[in-house]
Design goal:
mainly beta, 5-stranded mixed β-sheet, 4-stranded antiparallel β-sheet, 2 helices
């Protein structure tokens, strides 16, 4: 088989619906929704940390997009089992909206055991409360 046919065949295979490469999918995403408005919460700063002994090491920081999402929060490094924390910096978001809030930061700690799957951490946010869960 010549190089052109091989490259074309590979390109067609990778572009077929339902076929993805596991390495191309980021294992960690977040989504912030404003429960009061029912709309996404853009421009929320988020920090990802990994627990090392009794302290936390920052792995990545990012900001939610216009849809309130960060689709790829995990940095370009191997995905390892362990304890992690995602901290949503909600104080600045509410300050920008000229609203008071009780929770200026919302830390969500979680434990990763299976490094072959993806993890999604959604946050339903209001000025004086929040809810989170492991999404899909």
């Amino acid at each position: 088989m010549n190089k052109f046919v091989a490259a074309f065949s590979l390109a067609m295979l990778l572009s077929a619906p339902g076929i993805t490469l596991a390495a191309s999918k980021n294992p960690l995403s977040v989504h912030v929704l404003n429960q009061q408005t029912g709309l996404p919460a853009p421009q929320v700063a988020v920090t990802l940390e990994q627990k090392e002994g009794v302290s936390w090491k920052v792995l990545n920081t990012a900001t939610t997009n216009e849809d309130g999402r960060i689709d790829a929060l995990w940095p370009e490094k191997p995905f390892k089992a362990g304890d992690y924390r995602v901290t949503f910096k909600t104080g600045k978001y509410f300050a920008y909206k000229q609203q008071q809030t009780f929770f200026t930061e919302i830390p969500v700690e979680f434990h990763v055991t299976d490094t072959t799957t993806t993890y999604h951490v959604p946050l339903l946010l209001s000025q004086f409360g929040y809810s989170t869960y492991r999404g899909s």
